[in-house]
């Protein structure tokens, strides 16, 4: 599971545990199945009305992506592009095709295969940019579904509150004063459910999906730049340094640090080790 997601979930559960078991006189007062049903069913009903069925069903798959720890492939793709650039620069077409056959990135395979097939560079760039735009639009639409759910949930919480207040007014008309507090609590708990789901579930998922899309865009734009340089048969060392510029978010090129002093997320990229390995290979060739 993604560490930040796990931390957030544990913090949220801990907060609810404190509110329900320490800050409340009667924890059972916060459990109201009809109120929860109004918020959940109402939110899902509005979502099905607003979006096509296939997009809504994809929400469950996307939710699994948020929970799963997805390691960035930026470094692996950079290394693969640099190896392909070296082989292409040396004119080893068969070796390039063999390297491409082992690639697990379909976007990278498509771009390099078009270069091997001697497709016009304008067409290659247009094709890859179209795929980037399509990916961005699809994943932003998925995040927008959760943002919509975050706006629907508090609204249906208010509907539950209005239903509870109407019931309370009916009790007042019948002079059953002893049940006023009970119905008032039911009226307010649905608003609690709506705000809680919106701000602890739906909106954080939307933000995490948007962040994931930004990271994937960095990788795809790096691959696009690498494909252009490969088609121009640029020097492999130049290709490597150009692709490394996409690692700027992990590394400061001005202030060098020992590898053991780097933060964990920077160590995961392996930038410094990879650079040393490539320099040794270039000196041998």
Describe this structure in words.
The chain is mainly α. The protein has one domain. 78% of the residues lie in helices and 0% in strands. It contains 11 helices and no strands. Helix 4 runs antiparallel to helix 5 and helix 5 runs antiparallel to helix 6. The chain is elongated. The two termini are 42 Å apart. The C terminus is likely disordered.
Brief summary:
The protein has eleven helices and no strands. The protein has 285 residues and is mainly α.
Determine the fraction of residues in helical runs and give it as a percent range.
over 70%
Low-confidence parts lasting 5 or more residues at pLDDT below 50?
252-256, 262-285
Question: Shape, please?
Answer: elongated
Alpha plus pi helix count: 11
Secondary-structure-derived class: mainly alpha
Gyration radius (Cα, Å) is 27 Å
Distance between the termini: 42 Å
How large is the share of residues in beta strands?
Answer: under 5%
Described by strand count, sense and barrel closure, the largest sheet is: none
Mean pLDDT: 79
Order of helices and strands: HHHHHHHHHHH
Number of strands: 0
Number of domains: 1
Question: Could you give the topology of this structure?
Answer:
Layout: H1 3-21, H2 33-50, H3 53-67, H4 74-89, H5 93-101, H6 106-116, H7 121-173, H8 180-231, H9 236-244, H10 264-269, H11 271-284
Helix pairs in contact: 2-7, 2-8, 4-5, 4-8, 4-9, 5-6, 6-7, 6-8, 7-8
């Amino acid at each position: 599971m993604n560490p930040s997601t796990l931390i957030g979930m544990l913090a949220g559960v801990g907060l609810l545990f404190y509110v329900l078991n320490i800050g409340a006189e009667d924890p059972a007062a916060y459990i109201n199945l009809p109120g929860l049903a109004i918020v959940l069913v109402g939110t899902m009903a509005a979502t099905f009305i607003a979006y096509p069925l296939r997009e809504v069903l994809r929400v469950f798959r996307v939710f699994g992506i948020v929970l799963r720890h997805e390691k960035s492939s930026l470094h692996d793709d950079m290394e693969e592009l640099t190896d392909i650039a070296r082989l292409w620069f040396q004119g080893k077409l068969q070796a390039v095709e063999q390297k491409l056959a082992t690639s697990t990135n379909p976007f990278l395979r498509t771009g390099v295969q078009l270069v091997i097939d001697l497709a016009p560079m304008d067409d290659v760039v247009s094709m890859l940019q179209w795929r980037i735009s399509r990916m961005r639009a699809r994943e932003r639409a998925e995040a927008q579904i959760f943002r919509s759910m975050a706006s629907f949930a508090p609204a249906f919480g208010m509907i539950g509150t209005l239903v509870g207040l109407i019931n309370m007014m009916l009790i007042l008309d019948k002079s059953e004063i002893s049940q006023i507090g009970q119905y008032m609590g039911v009226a307010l708990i649905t608003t609690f459910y709506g705000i809680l789901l919106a701000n602890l579930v739906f909106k954080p998922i939307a933000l995490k999906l948007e962040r994931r899309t930004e990271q994937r865009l960095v990788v795809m734009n790096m691959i696009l730049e690498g494909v252009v340089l490969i088609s121009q048969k640029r020097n492999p060392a130049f290709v490597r340094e150009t692709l490394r510029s996409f690692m700027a978010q992990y590394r400061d090129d001005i202030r060098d640090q020992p590898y053991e002093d780097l933060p964990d997320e920077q160590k995961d990229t392996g930038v410094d080790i990879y650079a040393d390995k490539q320099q040794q290979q270039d000196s041998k060739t």
